[in-house]
């Protein structure tokens, strides 16, 4: 279980490197859909998802420490938003890529949406099934440790 715990702790950083590498390539380097409007829609929609995933990975990393708090949740959100803005600045220097304010807004909006659901589920006891999943994730290592000690 220790390997899985550490994997969850380094996963956000691996994902950040992946984002950086993909942002360094032309937008059609990895995939280009046959229909230009669909291709553009999918890639623009990914701004909402890409940094929300980063935020969620940071949350799971903190959940493995069993020290997840409202302040740490906010910290995860801020880091994901800052990295989204940093990525947009980075893309402005990459040939065949563009960086716009609206892309940064989409990055931050995706993070804020994910933050809302996790905050409500974990701290405010709404979205109970999702909240139970988050709590179970943070306690799975604790219960395993108790079983080993007993």
UniProtKB/TrEMBL annotation:
Domain VanZ-like: 40-119
Protein's UniProt name: VanZ-like domain-containing protein
Entry keyword annotation includes Calcium: no
UniProt keywords, alphabetically: Membrane, Transmembrane, Transmembrane helix
Organism for this UniProt entry: Bacillus methanolicus (strain MGA3 / ATCC 53907)
Chain ranges passing through the membrane: 7-25, 45-63
Pfam families per UniProt: VanZ
NCBIfam families: vanZ_1 (NF037970)
Keyword Oxidoreductase attached: no
Top-level taxonomic group: Bacteria
């Amino acid at each position: 279980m220790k390997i899985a715990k550490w994997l969850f702790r380094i996963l956000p950083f691996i994902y950040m490197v992946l984002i950086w590498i993909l942002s360094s390539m032309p937008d059609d380097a990895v995939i280009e859909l046959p229909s230009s409007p669909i291709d553009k829609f999918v890639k623009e929609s990914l701004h909402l998802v890409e940094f929300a995933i980063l935020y969620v990975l940071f949350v799971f990393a903190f959940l493995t420490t069993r020290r997840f708090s409202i302040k740490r949740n906010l910290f995860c959100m801020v880091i994901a938003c800052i990295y989204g803005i940093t990525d947009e600045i980075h893309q402005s220097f990459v040939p065949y890529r563009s960086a716009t304010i609206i892309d940064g807004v989409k990055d931050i909006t995706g993070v804020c949406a994910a933050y809302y659901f996790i905050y409500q589920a974990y701290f405010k006891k709404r979205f109970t099934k999702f909240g139970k999943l988050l709590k179970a994730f943070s306690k799975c290592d604790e219960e395993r440790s108790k079983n080993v000690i007993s």
